[in-house]
Amino acid sequence: MSDAAALAALIRRRQPCVVLTGAGVSTESGIPDFRSPTGIWAEYDPMEYATIQAFDADPEKVWSFYALRFGALTQAEPNDGHRALAELEARGFVRAVITQNIDLLHDRAGSRELVEVHGSIRTCVCRGCGARYALDDVLRLLESSAAPRCEACGTILKPDVVMFGELLPLEAIDRAYELAREAALLLVVGSTLEVAPVSLLPWETMQSGGEVAIVNLGPTRFDRHAALRVDGSAAEVLRAVAAELA
Ligand SMILES: [Zn+2]
Q1: What is the CA(128)–ligand 1 centre distance, in A?
Q2: For residue 89, what are the CA distances in angstroms to 93, 122, 145, 201, 211?
Q3: pLDDT per position in the chain (246 positions), as tens?
Q4: What's the 132 CA to ligand 1 centre distance in angstroms?
Q5: Long-range contacts for 208-211 (Cβ within 8 Å, ≥24 apart)?
Q6: Residues annotated as part of the active site
Q7: DSSP character for 199?
Q8: 215 CB-near residues (< 8 Å, 6+ apart)
């Protein structure tokens, strides 16, 4: 049996299936992982441009990086990996997608039960008056300013993404843990499971009697505990799995 057929059989047998995705699901959409410094991350040190401390100290400097990032993320398109997961959800094989990605590509591909544990670029918040700005408004503000400011009070907006050094949004992480506990199968796609607390979700599933399957290019921290491990690209493997389940 091929890897895709074995994974399809596991998904069929172990319901509900919850999916946990990381940067690897979006690399084929041209979005580089900060761990493999290519593209934008080759020039911008995350510690200097993507921490909450850096934002508090010099939001304009951090926006010089985020403006480029917002541009790159909004121009990227979902790939077959995102599309296959949305299709599997629509057909009842996937209950929810938990993602570490902020790029909205699962949303744009059609995933509906989506838990974004690192936030997303969907909104920015004004920490002066609490106003929220939708992505389209932020992109409009970015056309005339390198660092978008609140139109009501003038404070520089903060993206609703979790920066390094910030806590994860409590509601999202609680929901992620709940889904992991209830999953008969947690399918990890494109994550090396190195960042806590997301890296703890597979343990949550196993301690509740579920199994874990992994699709990733290269090894992950959880490989030896996984019921099935497929070394491959997210788009290729998930497209084949969706075909097997058709
Ligand atoms: Zn404001």
Answers
A1: 5
A2: 6, 22, 39, 20, 19
A3: 799 999 999 999 999 999 999 999 999 999 987 666 666 667 788 788 889 999 999 999 999 999 999 999 999 999 999 999 999 999 999 999 999 999 999 999 999 999 999 999 999 999 999 999 999 999 999 999 989 999 999 999 999 999 999 999 999 999 999 999 999 999 999 999 988 889 999 999 999 999 999 999 999 989 999 999 999 999 999 999 999 998
A4: 8
A5: 208/180, 208/181, 208/182, 208/183, 209/184, 210/14, 210/180, 210/183, 210/184, 210/185, 210/186, 211/10, 211/14, 211/184, 211/185, 211/186
A6: 118
A7: G
A8: 7, 187, 188, 189, 190, 230, 232, 234, 237, 238
Whole-model pTM above 0.90? yes
Q: How far is the CA of 153 from the centre of ligand 1 (A)?
A: 4
> For the purposes of burial, counting CB atoms within 10 Å of the CB of 27, is it exposed (0-12), middle (13-18) or buried (19 or more)?
buried
Whether 180 contacts 97, CB under 8 Å: no
In whole angstroms, what is the distance from residue 130 CA to residue 212 CA? 40
Q: Which residues surround ligand 1, an ion (CB under 5 A)?
A: 126, 128-129, 131, 150, 152-153, 155
Q: Is 166 helix (H, G, I), strand (E, B) or coil?
A: coil
Q: What is the DSSP letter of 213?
A: E
**What's the 149 CA to ligand 1 centre distance in angstroms?**
8
Say how many Å lie between the CA of residue 150 and the centre of ligand 1: 5
Ligand 1 center–CA 124 separation, angstroms: 11
